[in-house]
Design brief:
The protein is α/β, with parallel strands linked by helices. It has one domain. Helices cover 33% and strands 18% of the residues. The protein contains three helices and seven strands. It has a three-stranded mixed β-sheet with strand order 2-4-3. A two-stranded parallel ribbon has the order 1-5. It has a two-stranded antiparallel sheet with strand order 6-7. Strand 6 and strand 7 form a beta hairpin. The chain is globular, with a radius of gyration of 16 Å.
Length: 125
């Protein structure tokens, strides 16, 4: 019997959960399903530029697990881009980190324990 999957930490759910090629109705497209934890791994490694150890620590998982999640996510994204498939972001085993704030004005994200203004634009949450 396999071990139960450990809950992975993500900072937040994405604002948009479906991407598709332009000009083709969604019902005509095959979909690739990307889990929330897979998107978080890509975000931390490729968008924020963290090394794997730091990204794995932020998600509360081991480096080998982070590498497997990242490899799976990149394969799915590549398949969708090369073969003209839609990408639906949903599911997975995850918990949302409670101390992450997002500015409504500029979209900046930061770690904070209390509600406060954005450190970049002083906007409200």
């Amino acid at each position: 019997m396999p071990r139960p999957v450990k809950c992975r930490r993500i900072e937040s759910k994405p604002d948009v959960e479906l991407f598709k090629p332009r000009g083709i109705p969604a019902f005509m497209l095959e979909e690739v399903v990307l889990g929330f934890e897979e998107l978080e791994a890509v975000r931390l490694k490729d968008l924020e530029g963290l090394d794997q150890a730091s990204a794995a620590a932020r998600m509360d998982i081991s480096r080998p697990t982070f590498q497997r999640i990242l490899r799976s996510a990149r394969a799915k994204i590549s398949d969708a881009l090369v073969n003209g498939k839609a990408i639906r972001i949903e599911g997975g085993v995850y918990a949302i980190t409670a101390d992450v704030r997002k500015c409504c004005a500029c979209g900046h994200r930061w770690h904070a324990r209390e509600a406060e203004g954005c450190p970049v634009c002083a906007g409200k949450l």
